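Quick question, first post here. What does this chain look like in 3D?
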Amino acid sequence: PEDENGHGTGMASIAAAQTNNLKGIVGIAPKARVLPVRAFNAQGFGQMDDIARGIYYAADMGAQVINMSFGDVVRSRVLEQAVTYATNNGSVLVGSAGNVGGPYQRYPAAFDPVIAVSWLDINNSIASRASYGPHVSVSAPGSGIYHATHQTAQSYSKSNGSSASSALVS
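> Answer (accepted):
Ran it through. Tokens below.
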């Protein structure tokens, strides 16, 4: 699928950009294969049933890890069922804890089987806008993380937030 928004391409490049291709960056796991699944529109918004369908699809395709660099304050039953399905089918799910600063739960990261990832600033401290709390499993670097931009992946930018942290952990 085409990434009209660029967020998915950026997060995939953090996780798995290849080496030795004379292009921009290297991902944390450059030999990993990426299964592109688009559940959001060009403005970066998605309906819970579309997101759930994407999770089901990834699990059915045998995804070992499903990165969920997105979140919402709404606890959706349909999304929770998709997370449970993927987990029961062998996928590890990683989700961004959020960027609202404080002990706030964001879903799907706050669902029990998901590895919820908060972000660290350049001083290796919890970032001021990072969400945290007992649902958070781990924190990872999330300030100034380089990633590819847009669907062509020919230009690069820096990202700040738990989306980048989640991609690193994934």
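The mean pLDDT is 93.
Residues 65 and 92 are 5 Å apart (CA to CA).
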